[in-house]
Amino acid sequence: MQNHQKEHLYKILVIGDLGVGKTSIIKRYVHQSFSPHYRATIGVDFALKVLDWDSETVVRLQLWDIAGQERFGNMTRVYYREAVGAFIVFDVTRPSTFEAVMKWKEDLDFKLTLPNGAPVSTVLLANKCDQGKDVFMNNGIKMDQFSKENGFVGWYETSAKENLNIEEAARCLVKYIMARE
Ligand code: GDP
Ligand code: MG
Fold first, then answer.
1. Cβ atoms of residues 125 and 23 within 8 Å
2. 6-15 and 154-157 as β-strands: parallel, antiparallel, unpaired?
3. What crossing angle do the helices spanning 22-31 and 166-180 adopt, rounded to 10°?
4. Is 135 in the pocket of ligand 1 (CB under 6 A)?
5. Which of 22, 24, 136 to mutate to test the pocket of ligand 1 (most atoms within 8 A of CB)?
6. What confidence tier does 37 reach under pLDDT thresholds 50, 70, 90?
7. Is any atom of ligand 1 closer than 6 Å to the C-beta of 26?
8. Fewest CB atoms less than 10 Å from the CB: which of 25, 58, 105, 161?
9. How far is the CA of 19 from the centre of ligand 1 (A)?
10. What are the tens digits of pLDDT across the range 46-65?
11. CA of 29 to the centre of ligand 1 (A)
């Protein structure tokens, strides 16, 4: 018997300002756990999530967490290299982290393109939505429009604490990555 399963390995970046919940989102998604205790990530961290995409396809997501370089707001090309997708995360309780989203998107698009020159698929995550969304929703920001105008393939309100929308966001990202291959 031959095995006809196809395997895909995708490098995915998880970027955004310090403390927005990048590490927590990865931990929730990969290890089904959450800790309220803050611990800054040290060094670059990887986590692997294996998805049985369909009966013929296995998808391995290599999630790259960043490591304190958040402060500088710009990453080296080496870190971005060969990624095919990204999550840009902000914290709905801290407007400054939303303002930084465009800085992250520009940095990413400037330093990394797919072999055909297109930007990589990027999903925007509005994290900590368990803490009350009004904080930034009340500012009248139209997220659908913002997301489209700025080249995101989608956006989700997420909570690493309550496990909201993280799997949905990942499926959305993978769908776009596959469509662009
Ligand atoms: P990072 O610096 O972006 O990696 O952020 P962390 O994942 O280390 O999270 C920073 C802090 O926010 C930690 O204390 C987490 O417990 C907390 N946190 C992360 N995600 C959520 C969330 O969805 N809801 C709540 N309430 N707290 C969160
Ligand atoms: Mg971290």
1. no
2. unpaired
3. 90
4. no
5. 24
6. confident
7. no
8. 58
9. 6
10. 799 999 999 999 999 999 98
11. 13
Which residues have CB under 8 Å from 150's CB, separation 6+? Answer: 101, 102, 105
> Does an H or E element contain 35, and which?
none
Three-state SS for 98? helix
The b/e string for 58-77 (b: 16+ C-beta within 10 A; e otherwise) is: ebebbbbbbeeebeeeebee
Whole-number Å distance between alpha carbons of 13 and 119: 13
The pLDDT value recorded for residue 54 is: 93
Determine the residue type at 31. Answer: H
Tokens of 136: 């930034």
Respond yes or no on whether ipTM tops 0.95: yes
Q: Is the CB of 160 under 6 A from ligand 1?
A: yes
pTM of the model: 0.92
131 Cβ inside 6 Å of ligand 1:
yes
Tokens of 161: 């604490």
Atom of ligand 1 nearest to the CA of 28: 20
Amino acid at 73: G
